[in-house]
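Lecture 7 notes: from sequence to structure.
We start with the chain below.
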Amino acid sequence: MTADILIKGGLVFDGAGHPGVKSDVLVRDGAIADIAPTISASAARVIDADGLAVAPGFIDIKTHSDFTLPINPKAESKLRQGVTSEIIGHCGFSVAPVLPGKVELLRDYLSPSAPWLPFRELSFPDYLDTFPATALNPGMLVGHNTLRLMVMGMDQRAPTPDELDRMIALLEDGLKAGALGLSSGLFTSPGSYAAPDEMIALCNVVKRYNGGYFTHIRDESNKVIEAVEEAIHVAAVCGIHVEIVHFKCSGMDNWGKAQRCLDMIAAAKARGVDIDCDSHPYTAGSNPLKNLMPQWVQAGGVPAMIERLHLKETRDRIRADIERDGLNNWGRIPNWDCVQISITPNLPQYAGRTIADLAKERGKDPIDVVCDYMIEDKGATRVLVISISEDDIRDLVRSPQVLVGSDGNCVADYGITSQGMPHPRFYGTFPRILGHYVHELGIIPIERAIHKMTGLTAKALRLKDRGLLKPGYRADIVAFDPADFKDQATYADPHRYPTGTRTTVLVNGEVVIDKTRHTGALPGKVLRRDGTGAVS
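Predicted structure tokens for the same chain:
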């Protein structure tokens, strides 16, 4: 049984958007037992929170930690940010289901994102039931790209009625087991091959099981307006909650469109459409290098892509497409200095180098360097792309309707997940908002920022007993010094935890981060959706 804990004298933010109130918080049996100005009950442990903000544990609504949690269950990079729950399986990239004979297909497909993760034949119910003990609470999504891979491979066409039925059966298998919903990555193959009617057919299934739909929209650059319209249409037609994940307006030609998109989402919500979006506070995004290429480059899978990349006519066509349209789904960037190698499993010595730097060193055109590099790294390279306007980021941070999602994995500054140069958002998303945009710039009050990270996110996810500090709710709690909770991770030095010597984090009533020290506890619980749509 979890020992009682009394958190004394902190400035308590309830997660509902109200200003902080100095209070005590009593934790018993993994739940919040009482919140009051003064609590005199005895406790096995008393935590002095004088001078600290005490808030619900942050909920990272958009992550890919399914790629790392099984090999890094302590989840240091997230817990040190105050994150106690996160949603995984996004962008259509789930690691289950894996059908017999399809293990290598999925391993190759996810190699830029999950280079160290072992894969095996796995049903979605077994995936949920056998997920290892972790230090935070994961909630899983069924990935549309994975469904297509299992049923259709990388075929660039509409599914036959039988193939659609098989995808639906796999989706239902996951939803019945408690998956929170369906994710899509309509920006890259094979998800990009799906017409809107395919997604509506699958989302009608999601509706039957009261799940949600989490979409990396079809285009975040030159056709971002049309892509947002498509997401709103799905939400309206299917009557489900739709989450536009890691929303951005990428590419110089699209800077300034964020507010227009937010206005479109707000107007849809005013009409009763159940739609939200989330974002991270960085001007760079991250993606497999192959996804920056025109979509036709990946047709047929990684081996076919590698074969055609050797051809001069392929490179000439890529060069012409990028000159005309910019990078696929990223738009026009200032130069190739804006593309930095992040994770490169077969060529680790190049992590942190830019394409422009390599082109100069090799005396080659950047497109030739990109093609050569994808061949050398077997298509497994992941890159950072600086393509987002800081003004747009401030609009998103300031907006009361935009949730917070890191789009980052649980990693650490030691072991296998310390390899490479990941995006600094893996370590810094939540303290960057609270330290930079709240404390330093003052563009949003702390209570609203916390609301966007907790109660508002919990509402979007239908979390039954998390996201608020309220008696009876699960004791997922973070205590931190608002004046000393700042991100330190950078693009050049990403494996750095945030500042704050007094940061303490509880998950399900158990102390996991004790004044920045990880206790080794793994009290996380897999979040599951029930038949009503509630998640606990």
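Points to note: The mean pLDDT is 96. The chain has three domains: 5-56+462-487+496-518, 59-283+388-453, 291-386.
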